[in-house]
Amino acid sequence: METRKIVIEIVSKDATTKSQKIIDKVQKRETTETIETIKEGTLVSSLVVNQAFTQVKGLVKNAALYYMNKHFTLKENYLMQRNVDNALTTINKVASFGTSVAGGFLLGNVPGAAVAAVGWVANEAFTAFKRQDQTMMGLNTTNIQTAFQRTRAGLSNGSRGTQN
Questions:
Q1: SS3 for 158?
Q2: For every one of its 164 residues, what pLDDT tens digit does the chain have, with 9 covering 90 and above?
Q3: I want to staple 9 with a disulfide (CB 3.0 to 4.6 A). Which of 32, 40, 44, 103 is the partner?
Q4: Per residue, what are the HEC states of 19-70?
Q5: CA nearest 162: which of 143, 154, 144, 151?
Q6: 24, 16 in Cβ contact below 8 A?
Q7: CA geometry: angle at 144 spanning 142 and 149, to 5°?
Q8: Strand, coil or helix: what is 85?
Q9: Rounded Cα gap, residues 105 and 99, in angstroms
Q10: What is the pLDDT of residue 24?
Q11: What is the spatial distance between Cα 164 and Cα 159, in angstroms, rounded to a whole number?
């Protein structure tokens, strides 16, 4: 694998013209100071390690949730499954809120944290509204289907119901 370097150099003030800078480099004078050398391979490998860690973390989390839910389903302990799901949802929301506020604080101190908190609350409120709206749409669809099937089956005769 080929290794490349990114080198940042500051040219000394002794070299005043472009041609003088080139001559100084050819003569290998000490006219440059290397600030930082970053190997391209190190940057790529750190990105790969971060990506691998994220994937392994997701895999472990998914496997743990799968086996936990499988255990609750096989034991028919749906109440405990609901309680654990509620606890995990709460933990995730608290962590999300904390991350949002911390990021806002890093970007803009207290005003940034306040803006991040308001944005997070607005997002959660819209999510709750969306869930409720979808539930109501599903309920309305079910009610319309039930009324249609009842009429089609002849179960409603005006307001008298069925006649035997």
A1: coil
A2: 566 666 555 555 555 555 555 555 555 554 444 434 444 556 667 777 888 888 888 899 899 889 988 988 888 888 888 898 899 999 999 999 999 999 888 888 888 899 999 999 999 999 999 999 999 999 999 999 988 888 887 766 555 555 54
A3: 32
A4: HHHHHHHHCCCCCEEEEEEEEHHHHHHHHHHHHHHHHHHHHHHHHHHHHHHH
A5: 154
A6: no
A7: 95
A8: helix
A9: 10
A10: 57
A11: 15
Q: Which pair of structure tokens corresponds to residue 5?
A: 């370097």
Q: How far, in Å, CA of 43 to CA of 38, rounded? A: 8
Contact (Cβ atoms closer than 8 angstroms) between residue 32 and residue 11: yes
What's the burial of 115, exposed, middle or buried (CB within 10 Å: 0-12/13-18/19+)? middle
For residue 28, is it left (φ>0), alpha (ψ between -120 and 50) or beta?
Answer: left
Q: What number of CA atoms fall less than 13 Å from residue 81's CA on the CB side?
A: 14
Describe the crossing of helices 78-152 and 40-74 by its angle, rounded to 10 degrees.
Answer: 70
